[in-house]
UniProtKB/TrEMBL annotation, chain B:
It is a multi-pass membrane protein. GO terms for cellular component: plasma membrane; transmembrane transporter complex. This is ABC transporter ATP-binding protein. Keywords: ATP-binding, Cell membrane, Membrane, Nucleotide-binding, Transmembrane, Transport. It is found in: Cell inner membrane. InterPro entries: AAA+_ATPase (IPR003593), ABC_transporter-like_ATP-bd (IPR003439), ABC_transporter-like_CS (IPR017871), MacB-like_ATP-bd (IPR017911), P-loop_NTPase (IPR027417). It comes from the Bacteria. SUPFAM superfamilies: P-loop containing nucleoside triphosphate hydrolases (SSF52540). CDD domains: ABC_MJ0796_LolCDE_FtsE. Belongs to the ABC transporter superfamily. Macrolide exporter (TC 3.A.1.122) family. One of its GO terms (molecular function) is ATP binding. Residues 6-225 form the ABC transporter domain. SMART domains: AAA (SM00382).
C-alpha cells in the first residue's frame, strides 16, 4: 500500500469522489465554486467584450484616422495644410435641433455630412425600420436618414417629410449604423443624418449656435504625423485633434469605471463563495479524520493521504470551474441583453481568456480556502483508530488566514481593482459588520430573555440561533447587506427621479429654448406670451472656454474628473446680467458696482461649487477663449445657484457691457401646460434656428437608461445573493449532524413533525427577518443621507421597505427549511444507536 | 402488580444486508405489568438496543406486535407513535441527550410542552428540585457535570408521568459512585410513581435491582422470562 503510484491514488480519489457525490456530501462546495467562477467569468466576459468592441472600432471609431474638432469651422489654412499633405478630407457638422412635422416636434441630434463621409468604417441603412441593412454613402441633398426611434416618436414612416429648420427633407432611409457613433452610448436624442449641402438652407446654424464642426482626415501615417505637427501650433482653444486613441480613452474611462464596480461585485461574490468553500471543506476534512487515520494505519504516508484527499477536491474543483465558466459565458449574454441599446450593437466574442481567468479564480479560491482545513487530514494521528478522541493538531491560524488572504490578493490583482477603493470598502464593510454584528448579537440575546415564556418552538428556534451566535450574526449581516444593496438600487431607480419631479413647483418650466437669434428675440418673447406660457427672462449666451487662471493654464490646476475638470473640457455658456438672477444668492464679493473704473478688468461672477473646484478666489484673473478671441475678467463675486429651478443658470455671469460685441444667441425656459403640441410646432416652424428641449422627454429617456443600468447591476447582485445562499447552506451543512440528532431526540421524546418544522421555520425566519430589518433600516438611513446631503431633496420614509423583513424571512426561511429537511426525517432510533 | 402495560408478541427484526437477510431479533415475546421493572442484558450486538427501540416504538418490527398502553404500535404512523411516546413513555440515555440550546429547566419542560401541559414550568421546577438541581435551573447542559446532566435527563424522563420508562445504559457514561447515585434515583422515582421500568445495561448491579431480567444472545432469549 505504501508504494501507490500517483495514478493509483488518482483513480482511488476519483472513486471516492463518486461515492461522496452520490451521498450529496460535496454539493455545497461544488455550488459555491460554480457561483464564484460564474460571477467572475460573466463579468470578465462583459469587460473583455466591451474592450474588444472598442478595439475593433479603433480605426473606424472616429470615421477617420484623425479628426480636427471645434466649435467653430476650421480656418482655410488649416484645411489647406491637410490637402497639401495629400490627405483625404471629409466634413461633418453636428448640432441639436427640433424636427417638426404636422403631428409634433422631437429634439434630434442632426449630423450634416459631405459626400466623402465616412473615411473609415461604413454607414449602414435600411429601406424600412428593422429591414435589411446595406452599406453605402450618406443621404443625397434633399433627403434625410433617421433612426427608427424618431419614426416611432413622431409616428412617421419612410417617405414622409420632416422639417429641419426651414428646410423640408424627405426621409428616404432608416439609419442603422454610423462608425463614429460607437462610443456615444448615452445619446438621448435620435439621430438625423442630412447632406451638408442642405445645411445652409435649414437656417439652423447661426453665429453663436452650439455646433460641433469636424474635419475628418485619412491618409498615410507619415502624412498624418506631418499634418499633426503642422496643425498643432495653429489650434484655437475651442479646437482639438482627436485620434482613435483619444476617442477610446474617453469611452474607456467610463467603461473602466463601470467594470471596476462590477469587478467589486464579483469580488464580493468570490469572497462569500470562499467562505462557503472554507466551511464545507472543513466539514469535508473533519468527516474524513477516521478514514485518514485508517489509511495511515494501513501504511499510507502522510503525503499520500493528503494527496488522496487533495486530488478529490481538485477533481471536484476542476469540474465546478468548467461548469461555472460555461454558466458565466451564458450569463454575460443576459447582461448584454439588459444593457441593449446603451451599448454598441455589434460586440465581438470575448475569446477564451475570460473563461480561463474565471476558472483560475475558482481554483485559487479553492486552494486558498480549502487547503488549510484539508491540511489537517495529513496530520491525523494513526492512533485515532483506537482512540477516537484524538484530533489532528489544528493548522496554525497564520496558515488559515494567510492562505485565504493570499488567494484574495491574487484574485484582486487579477481583477485589477482600485486597491484603495477596495480596501476602503472592505475595511468600512468590516467595521460596519462588527458594529452591526454586535448589535444583532445583543438583540438576539435580549430576544432570548424576552421569549423565556414563549411557546416551545420559539425557544427551540431561537436557542438554535444562539447556539452559534457568531455564525447567526454573520449570516444575518451578509444577507442584510445583500438585501440592502438591492433595495437601495431599487429605491433609487424607482423613486429618485419621481421625488425630484414631484418636489418641483407645478409650473416649473418644462421647456428650454436655445439658440434664439438676437433679431428674433422680441418676436419670440411675444409669441411665448401669446399662448400664455410663463417664461423666464431671455439670457444672452456666448459659448466660451476658460483657458487660464492668473496666467496659468487651467489643465495644470484642476484634478481629474472634478467639476472643474469637466467645466474646462468644454465650452461654457457665458452670459451677462445687470441684476442677480432669480434663484441665485451671493456667497462672497459684491454684485456690480454702479460705475467700474475705466481701466479695471470686467468683473465676472462665478458659481461657488465650480469656483471651489477650480480653487478660485475673489480677484483672480480669468482668461477665456471666445470664438477664437481672448477675453480677460476678474472674479468679483461667488454665487450659489438653485440648479433644480429649471430657470436658465450659468457658471459665469459677466458684467454688462463686456461681451456685447460678440455673436450672441439667447436662452430661456418656459412652462407650457400639456396639450399645446400644435403651438410648439408653430413656434418651431416660425423660429427654425431655435432648439426646443422638452424636459419631460429628456427625463423619460434618463429614466429608461437608469432603469436598464440598475437592472444590470441587480442582475450582477443576484450572483452575490446566490453566493450568500451557498454560505447559508455551508453553515447549515456544518450543523446538520447536530440538527439531525436534535430532530431524532425530539421525535423520540414524542414531538410530531409539525413541531420540528415550526422550529426550523422560526429559526430561519427570525434570521431572515433580522437580515431584512437590518437592510430596511440601512436603506432608510442611507436614503436619508443621500436625499439630504447628495440630492438636497425632502426625504420621507418608505413604508414599503418593511416588506424586506418579510422577504428576508421567506427567502432565508425557505432556504433554511430546505437545507435542513434531512433533519426532519431523522429516525428517532438514531439516538439509541449513538448512545 | 397492575394490568399489562407493555406486551410484545413474536417480535422479530430482520434487516437486509449484502450477504442476505440478517435476523437481529428472533420471535421474542414478553408481557410487562404496570409498575414492573425489567433489565435487558447481553453482549454487544445481541439485539438489546434493537429490542428497546421496538418496545418504545422508535422502530417497527419485521414481524410480531408491540402493544404499549393499549396502543398497537404497528398500526400507527410515525407521528401517531410520537403522540403515544409523548403521552406514555419516558427515556433515559447513556449519553444523556439533553438539548444543548435549552436550559436545564427547559429540557425538563420539553415533554410536558409536547403534551401541552399548562403547568409545565412549575412541574419541571419541582422535579429538578426533587433530583437535587433546584439551584441549577437556568444552566445550559454544557455548564453541568455528567452526573448532573443525567439527573436532568431523569427529571425529564419522569416529567410527563410516563407509564413506561426506557433507560439505555443510564450509568454507562458515569463513574461507579455517580452511577450508583443515579440508579438510586431511578429506582426511587420508579417506586414513588409506579412507573414501569425497562432498562438495557451492562451493569450487573443495576440489572439485579430489577424485578425481572432477560438475557439476549444473537437475538434470542437465553434466560427464560420469569413470570
Amino acid at each position: 500500500m505504501a508504494h501507490l503510484s500517483f495514478f493509483r491514488l488518482l483513480s482511488l480519489a476519483l472513486r471516492q469522489l463518486l461515492r461522496d457525490a452520490r451521498a450529496g456530501e460535496l454539493r455545497v462546495l461544488f455550488f459555491a465554486l460554480v457561483i464564484a467562477v460564474t460571477a467572475s467569468t460573466a463579468i470578465g466576459y462583459f469587460g473583455a467584450r466591451l474592450n474588444g468592441a472598442m478595439l475593433l472600432r479603433a480605426t473606424e471609431f472616429l470615421g477617420a484616422d484623425l479628426v480636427l474638432q471645434g466649435s467653430s469651422p476650421a480656418n482655410t489654412a488649416q484645411i489647406n495644410t491637410g490637402i497639401d499633405q495629400g490627405l483625404e478630407h471629409a466634413r461633418v457638422v453636428e448640432f441639436s435641433s427640433v424636427i417638426a412635422t404636422d403631428s409634433g416636434i422631437q429634439l434630434s441630434s442632426i449630423k450634416a455630412t459631405d459626400n466623402n463621409y465616412p473615411l473609415r468604417g461604413e454607414l449602414r441603412s435600411a429601406a424600412e425600420p428593422y429591414g435589411t441593412e446595406t452599406p453605402g454613402k450618406g443621404p443625397a441633398p434633399g433627403e434625410a436618414w433617421v433612426e427608427s426611434r424618431l419614426l416611432a416618436a413622431l409616428n412617421l414612416k419612410v417617405g414622409d417629410s420632416i422639417d429641419v429648420g426651414m428646410k423640408t427633407l424627405r426621409m428616404s432611409r432608416v439609419l442603422t449604423y454610423e462608425p463614429d457613433r460607437a462610443g456615444n452610448f448615452y445619446s438621448l436624442t435620435p439621430r438625423v443624418l442630412i447632406n451638408l449641402a442642405d445645411l445652409d438652407a435649414t437656417g439652423v446654424v447661426q453665429p453663436g449656435s452650439r455646433v460641433t464642426y469636424r474635419d475628418l482626415w485619412r491618409g498615410a501615417p507619415a502624412a498624418l504625423v506631418a499634418y499633426q505637427e503642422a496643425i498643432k501650433p495653429t489650434l484655437a482653444a475651442h479646437q482639438q485633434l482627436l485620434n482613435s486613441r483619444d476617442g477610446n480613452r474617453q469611452i474607456g474611462g467610463a467603461l473602466g469605471k463601470a467594470e471596476r464596480y462590477l469587478n467589486m461585485a464579483s469580488l464580493v461574490a468570490v469572497l462569500l463563495a470562499g467562505v462557503a468553500v472554507a466551511l464545507s471543506a472543513s466539514r469535508f476534512a473533519s468527516r474524513r479524520f477516521d478514514a485518514s487515520a485508517l489509511l495511515r494505519c494501513l501504511g499510507l504516508s502522510r503525503r499520500q493521504a493528503l494527496l488522496l484527499f487533495s486530488l478529490q477536491l481538485a477533481i471536484l474543483g476542476g469540474i465546478a470551474a468548467f461548469s461555472g465558466a460555461l454558466l458565466g459565458w451564458l450569463a454575460q449574454f443576459g447582461l448584454f441583453q439588459l444593457l441593449k441599446g446603451l451599448l454598441p450593437d455589434e460586440i465581438p466574442p470575448g475569446g477564451i481568456a475570460p473563461a480561463l481567468a474565471g476558472i483560475a479564480t475558482g481554483l485559487v479560491a479553492l486552494a486558498g480556502f480549502a487547503l488549510p482545513p484539508l491540511a489537517a487530514l495529513g496530520r491525523v494521528p494513526p492512533l485515532r483508530v483506537l482512540r477516537r478522541d484524538l484530533l489532528p493538531v489544528p493548522p496554525s491560524s497564520w496558515l488559515v488566514y494567510g492562505a485565504a488572504l493570499f488567494a484574495l490578493g491574487l484574485i484582486m490583482w487579477r481583477l485589477s481593482l482600485d486597491l484603495l477603493l477596495t480596501f476602503a470598502l472592505l475595511g468600512g464593510g468590516l467595521i460596519a459588520a462588527l458594529l452591526l454584528g454586535g448589535l444583532l448579537l445583543l438583540g438576539l440575546r435580549s430576544l432570548r430573555r424576552l421569549l423565556a415564556n414563549a411557546p416551545l418552538a420559539w425557544r427551540l428556534g431561537l436557542g438554535q440561533l444562539l447556539r452559534h451566535p457568531l455564525g447567526a450574526a454573520g449570516q444575518s449581516l451578509a444577507f442584510g447587506l445583500i438585501l440592502l444593496a438591492m433595495a437601495l438600487i431599487a429605491l433609487l431607480r424607482g423613486e429618485l427621479l419621481d421625488t425630484w419631479q414631484n418636489q418641483l413647483p407645478k409650473d416649473a418650466p418644462n421647456y428650454f429654448a436655445l439658440n434664439i437669434l438676437p433679431d428674433d428675440k422680441g418676436d419670440f418673447a411675444h409669441r411665448l406670451s401669446e399662448f400664455s406660457a410663463q417664461a423666464a427672462p431671455l439670457f444672452p449666451v456666448i459659448p466660451g472656454r476658460l483657458t487660464h487662471i492668473n496666467g496659468e493654464a487651467v489643465q495644470q490646476i484642476v484634478s481629474k474628473d472634478s467639476t472643474g475638470d469637466r467645466a474646462i473640457q468644454r465650452d461654457l455658456s457665458l452670459t451677462w446680467a445687470a441684476d442677480l438672477p432669480q434663484g441665485n444668492t451671493l456667497s462672497a464679493g459684491q454684485w456690480w458696482q454702479a460705475n467700474p473704473p475705466a481701466d479695471a478688468l470686467p468683473g465676472v461672477s462665478v458659481e461657488a461649487d465650480l469656483a471651489a473646484s477650480l480653487k478660485l478666489k475673489l480677484g483672480d484673473h480669468l482668461t477665456f477663449s471666445i470664438g477664437g478671441m481672448e477675453r480677460e475678467a476678474q472674479v468679483s463675486s461667488l454665487r450659489t445657484v438653485n440648479w433644480d429651478s429649471f430657470q436658465p443658470n450659468f457658471y459665469m455671469i459677466f458684467q454688462p457691457g463686456t461681451l456685447q460685441d460678440l455673436p450672441t444667441t439667447y436662452l430661456t425656459s418656459f412652462y407650457l401646460a400639456p396639450g399645446h403640441d400644435q403651438q410648439l410646432v408653430a413656434l418651431s416652424r416660425a423660429f427654425p434656428a431655435v432648439t426646443i428641449l422638452q424636459v419631460d422627454a429628456l427625463l423619460n429617456q434618463l429614466r429608461s437608461i437608469l432603469g436598464q443600468v440598475t437592472l444590470a447591476v441587480e442582475y450582477v447582485l443576484l450572483f452575490v445573493l446566490a453566493a450568500g445562499l451557498t454560505v447559508l447552506f455551508a453553515g447549515l451543512q456544518a450543523t446538520l449532524d447536530e440538527r439531525i440528532h436534535q430532530g431524532a431526540l425530539l421525535r423520540a421524546l414524542g414531538a410530531g413533525r409539525s413541531v420540528l418544522i415550526k422550529t426550523r421555520r422560526i429559526e430561519f425566519g427570525l434570521l431572515g427577518a433580522a437580515s431584512g430589518l437590518l437592510a430596511a433600516l440601512g436603506t432608510e438611513l442611507i436614503s436619508l443621507l443621500l436625499y439630504h446631503y447628495a440630492f438636497d431633496l425632502k426625504w420621507s420614509p418608505h413604508p414599503w421597505l418593511l416588506v424586506l423583513p418579510l422577504l428576508g424571512a421567506l427567502l432565508i426561511g425557505g432556504a433554511g427549511v430546505f437545507g435542513t429537511r434531512r433533519a426532519l426525517n431523522a429516525s428517532p432510533l438514531t439516538v439509541l444507536r449513538e448512545g | 402488580m397492575g394490568p399489562s402495560i407493555l406486551i410484545a408478541q413474536n417480535l422479530s427484526k430482520v434487516v437486509p444486508s449484502a450477504e442476505g437477510d440478517l435476523t437481529i431479533l428472533h420471535e421474542l415475546s414478553l408481557d410487562l405489568k404496570q409498575g414492573d421493572s425489567l433489565a435487558i442484558v447481553g453482549a454487544s450486538g445481541s439485539g438489546k438496543s434493537t429490542l428497546l427501540g421496538l418496545l418504545a416504538g422508535l422502530d417497527l418490527p419485521s414481524a410480531g406486535t408491540v402493544t404499549l398502553a393499549g396502543n398497537d404500535l404497528g398500526s400507527l404512523d410515525e407521528d401517531r407513535r410520537a403522540q403515544v411516546r409523548a403521552e406514555h413513555v419516558g427515556f433515559v440515555f447513556q449519553s444523556f441527550q439533553l438539548l444543548d440550546s435549552l436550559s436545564a429547566l427547559e429540557n425538563v419542560m420539553l415533554p410536558l410542552e409536547l403534551d401541552d401541559r399548562p403547568d409545565a414550568r412549575e412541574h419541571a421546577r419541582s422535579l429538578l428540585e426533587r433530583v437535587g438541581l433546584g439551584q441549577r435551573l437556568s444552566h445550559l447542559p454544557r455548564q453541568l457535570s455528567g452526573g448532573e446532566q443525567q439527573r436532568v435527563a431523569i427529571a425529564r424522563a419522569f416529567a410527563a408521568d410516563p407509564a413506561v420508562l426506557f433507560a439505555d445504559e443510564p450509568t454507562g457514561n458515569l463513574d461507579s459512585h455517580t452511577g450508583e447515585r443515579i440508579s438510586d434515583l431511578l429506582f426511587e422515582l420508579n417506586q414513588e410513581r409506579g412507573t414501569t421500568l425497562v432498562l438495557v445495561t451492562h451493569d450487573e448491579r443495576l440489572a439485579k435491582r430489577c424485578r425481572r431480567l432477560i438475557h439476549l444472545e444473537a437475538g434470542r432469549l437465553v434466560t427464560p422470562l420469569e413470570p
